[in-house]
Design brief:
- By secondary structure, the protein is mainly alpha-helical.
- The protein has one domain.
- Helix content is 44%, strand content 4%.
- It has a two-stranded antiparallel sheet.
- The N terminus is likely disordered.
Length: 148
């Protein structure tokens, strides 16, 4: 897909969509964001946007954004259906980042999906490799598996 400023023309929001929601569409269009835009780039453009900093009622705006879905067919008109999923995903990502920005929340990525691995497999795993008479001691330089 080309740059969203071109590809975003394939999707349009219905006239019944609130102007505050249409702001996300024009935000993506004017800032030249595409599906390859990083989240940090989107956040930077959100922080620098003057309209978002001057919203009078942030709670009502956040509620309005939370109730809206770009994937609802009643909200979107497709000029061409190709690449529509990428564009709608981008608009949803921008919407979620705006909500996060207005709530002044920061995502703590250090506490998400912590992967805990053992340094080495348990000794029982080595007993079934090769022959059963392995004398493996978990110390020394010869510790490991031999492949014959």
């Amino acid at each position: 897909m080309a740059n969203v400023s071109n590809a975003i023309e394939l999707v349009d929001l219905n006239d019944s969509v609130d102007k505050d929601i249409k702001f996300i569409y024009t935000f993506a269009k004017t800032n030249g964001l595409d599906e390859y835009s990083s989240v940090s780039e989107i956040r930077e453009k959100i922080r620098n946007d003057k309209k978002l900093n001057s919203i009078p009622s942030k709670k009502s705006y956040i509620n309005k954004l939370n109730r809206f879905s770009f994937f609802d067919p009643s909200n979107v008109k497709y000029k061409k259906s190709e690449d529509a999923y990428d564009i709608l995903s981008l608009l949803t990502l921008i919407k979620n980042e705006i909500i996060t920005y207005l709530n002044n929340k920061k995502t703590d990525f250090s506490k998400q999906n912590i992967l805990r691995r053992r340094v080495s497999p348990p000794l029982e795993a080595f007993k079934s490799v090769g022959h059963n008479n392995l004398d493996i001691k978990p110390t020394g330089r010869d510790y490991g598996l031999l492949f014959e």
